[in-house]
Design brief:
seven-stranded mixed β-sheet, rod-shaped
């Protein structure tokens, strides 16, 4: 029990918030694949929410699309077509032509194969005609598509950049290469190397670069003719979406540039080009006046402008047939690549799952030209951690102080606010900050605190139910459950009705019964009276020996508490009559009770100490009700109510003024009334009440003979109205001994 108590004291809103915040921070630091995956998807949604951005006019795409494949035949085409494409683009003023296509194998040309076979055959024959060999050499030159393409590349006024890719590991290569073969391949992409690498420190703590195994270069005849070659590798995230492009790959001790960088480099007329490396890793690429920021590994976060065809696409067949408008390619970077899904150069991007790789290269070039970079620097990790801390702690501080509805609205507001801030930073500051982990912290704290509140409230409900189930009806308990704060120590002044019911002559009767029989009789009496109390939603304050104290109007509030108290008193008398009939048959003594009811302001609440308290009422109004219960003995009545109670119920019940009395402990007199019944009392009873009222009026006027006559008439009508006999006795005494001149008819009660 002691351990459970300590655990309960430790487990509160503050500790829950602290533990969950720490937990989410640890998850964030270590990384959880499923949460990281969700964060990637939330990043993609930021593009969708932002919408499409217009590109500049410097980059266009010559597309190997469905239209071109239908017109020019299936891919790969004879390289003579591509040679013609370069010639036309050069003629139309293209500044750079970059190929997102690899030419690693010789062109398959049956004419060239025939010419080579014919030449070999003639060499084996005794034919010495030089004109025949010259013809064969000339035919070979015209039939050699690779040579034709190399010639067009070399002679083009546009700078031609070829693409290649790196095998990132031996597994992707699929076979072993000798050191000599690796050197040859590296030589084939040598003009892709960054000419300068500027290190902040000569020796770095770690190698930050992305490493590749070996390149897959173009044919040497083509590579030597081109202005340069750039790799077109893309490294998708774990969910397969391309969000980053490496601008630096290291292999063989050198750093290599991608197709977009070299295309842009030639577009800017080959300014100084270098890689800047700081202590923490790659800082970026310097290209003349341009500085291109990267992450620590040399990657750029791609700022996608929109879905497919955000950049201008021109079908290659239209270019070959000169159907494009004049000046379309003048001064442009023309990227040649496949957009047809059948060629399988499609990538998954935030906007579309089928997106041409060539358009990704165009996007990177556009990002650099327009300086529209996206950033995810190392310091955003600190921002993300602070966001986790702020959202979790704020939720933990505020939610426990709010109602359930306000709590969920507050949590939802924080949730939406963080999303809006992350989206605003994305659109206006080009920053990628984490959305998922801070929201996870918020959701976990809110959910846990809500569950904790529910369990705590259930514990409070159980406490209330246990505390009140023996004292109030079920409806009162339910009302208390809505507001457990009422169980706190303290009280408030409220207008209530209090009822006291006491068994007359209980002490003398107790002397005649065995203790067991007395307890059984008393329990049966209390049970029956309590049932009546609960019927009218009264609160059973306490049992005082043979007496009962009941409060109406607290803790369950209602305006008709005086009426409920009076109804309870009448039903108690009726129920006791039924019990007496039963007890007499069983040989048990019959009981009689007196009931006193008063309505007024009194203190109500939990009175006592922090260790133990009772829900009760206190004040003069309570004491008066107790005195009224005792007055029944004097006036030979069963139910006496105060003037304040009478004023509230006189239209619902039949009441009869009994007297003006000055109860013990009080100076000011109060009028008291007998509660005779509801408005359906028998006619003789009503007649007797009217007669008594007449007699009381004569009595107050000191008309003693008229009063005595009226009271005797009352007894004639109702022999059991012994209060009339009391007044006959008083009138006779006052007639003999007249009162003082200041007599107002008030009777002073000497006992409780």
């Amino acid at each position: 029990m002691k351990g459970s108590f300590k655990a309960s004291r430790f487990l509160n809103s503050a500790t829950i918030t602290f533990c969950l915040t720490l937990f989410v921070l640890l998850l964030f630091i270590s990384g959880v694949p499923i949460l990281d995956y969700i964060e990637l998807k939330s990043f993609d949604l930021r593009f969708i929410s932002r919408g499409v951005l217009p590109p500049s006019t410097e980059v266009v795409i010559a597309a190997i699309d469905e239209k071109s494949l239908r017109a020019e035949g299936r891919w790969p085409w004879p390289r003579s077509k591509l040679a013609k494409l370069i010639d036309i683009l050069s003629e139309e003023g293209a500044k750079v032509v970059s190929f997102d296509v690899l030419f690693s194998e010789p062109d398959e040309n049956t004419h060239l194969q025939f010419i080579n076979e014919l030449d070999e055959r003639l060499k084996s024959l005794p034919v010495r005609d030089s004109s025949i060999h010259a013809f064969i050499d000339q035919s070979r030159r015209f039939a050699d598509n690779d040579l034709a393409l190399a010639t067009s590349i070399r002679n083009a006024s546009a700078k031609v950049v070829l693409g290649y890719f790196f095998h990132m590991s031996d597994a992707s290569l699929g076979y072993e290469l000798t050191p000599e073969e690796i050197r040859e391949r590296l030589q084939g992409v040598s003009h892709s190397r960054y000419p300068v690498t500027l290190f902040a420190k000569k020796e770095m703590d770690a190698d930050p670069f992305i490493h590749a195994r070996t390149p897959q270069p173009n044919l040497s005849i083509l590579a030597e003719a081109a202005a340069s070659s750039g790799f077109f590798n893309m490294v998708p995230d774990p969910d397969g979406v391309v969000r980053w492009m490496p601008l630096v790959i290291k292999t063989g001790g050198d750093l290599y540039a991608p197709l977009p960088i070299l295309s842009l480099w030639h577009y800017m007329d080959d300014p100084p080009l270098m890689v800047r490396v700081e202590e923490h890793g790659v800082e970026g690429i310097r290209m003349g006046p341009l500085f291109i920021p990267t992450d620590e590994r040399g990657q750029i976060l791609i700022n996608y402008l929109g879905p497919t065809k955000t950049f201008p696409h021109y079908a290659i067949t239209d270019i070959l047939n000169r159907k494009t408008p004049a000046g379309t390619f003048s001064g442009k970077i023309v990227l040649v690549g496949a957009t047809s899904t059948g060629i399988y150069d499609m990538r998954n991007t935030p906007f579309e799952t089928v997106f041409p790789g060539v358009e990704i290269h165009a996007t990177v070039i556009e990002n650099i030209l327009s300086h529209s970079y996206l950033y995810k620097p190392a310091w955003t990790r600190l921002y993300d951690a602070l966001a986790i801390l702020l959202l979790s702690v704020l939720a933990g501080m505020v939610i426990p102080r709010l109602s359930a509805l306000k709590g969920i609205l507050f949590a939802a507001g924080l949730f939406i606010l963080h999303i809006l801030v992350a989206q605003w930073l994305f659109e206006n500051a080009a920053l990628w900050v984490n959305m998922v982990y801070p929201l996870l912290g918020l959701v976990l704290v809110y959910t846990s605190l809500t569950i904790y509140r529910y369990l705590t409230e259930e514990r409070e409900r159980k406490k209330i139910r246990e505390a009140f189930s023996h004292y109030v009806s079920g409806s009162v308990v339910n009302e208390m459950l809505r507001d457990p704060e009422r169980l706190k120590l303290g009280g408030e002044k409220k207008d209530l009705t209090v009822l006291f019911a006491d068994i007359r002559g209980f002490t003398s009767m107790a002397e005649t019964l065995e203790p067991e029989a007395l307890v059984e009789l008393l329990n049966e009496f209390h049970t029956a009276m309590t049932d009546v109390v609960y019927r009218y939603d009264g609160t059973l304050d306490k049992y005082i020996g043979d007496a009962i104290m009941v409060v109406y109007g607290a803790p369950l509030e209602f305006t008709d508490h005086a009426s409920r108290g009076c109804n309870s008193a009448l039903d108690m008398i009726a129920r006791l009559k039924e019990l007496n009939e039963k007890w007499v048959k069983e040989g048990k003594p019959a009981l009689d009770i007196g009931v006193g009811i008063n309505t007024g302001l009194m203190m109500v609440g939990n009175m006592g100490s922090q260790q133990r308290f009772d829900y009760t009422v206190m004040g003069d109004a309570v004491n008066l009700a107790s005195r009224l219960e005792g007055a029944n003995k004097l006036y030979h009545t069963n139910i006496v109510i105060s003037e304040s109670t009478c004023e509230r119920v006189k239209d619902e019940f039949t009441v009869m003024e009994l007297d003006s009395v000055r109860v013990k402990g009080k100076v000011r007199p109060v009028k008291i009334y007998e509660l005779a019944g509801r408005n359906d009392v028998p006619a003789p009873r009503k007649e007797a009440i009217q007669c008594f009222r007449r007699g009381l009026s004569f009595y107050k006027k000191q008309q003693w003979d008229e009063a005595i006559e009226a009271f005797r008439e009352t007894l004639t009508i109702q022999k059991n109205m012994q209060v009339a006999a009391l007044y006959i006795e008083r009138a006779d005494m006052l007639k003999t001994n007249p009162p003082t001149p200041d007599w107002d008819g008030t009777f002073t009660m000497r006992s409780k």
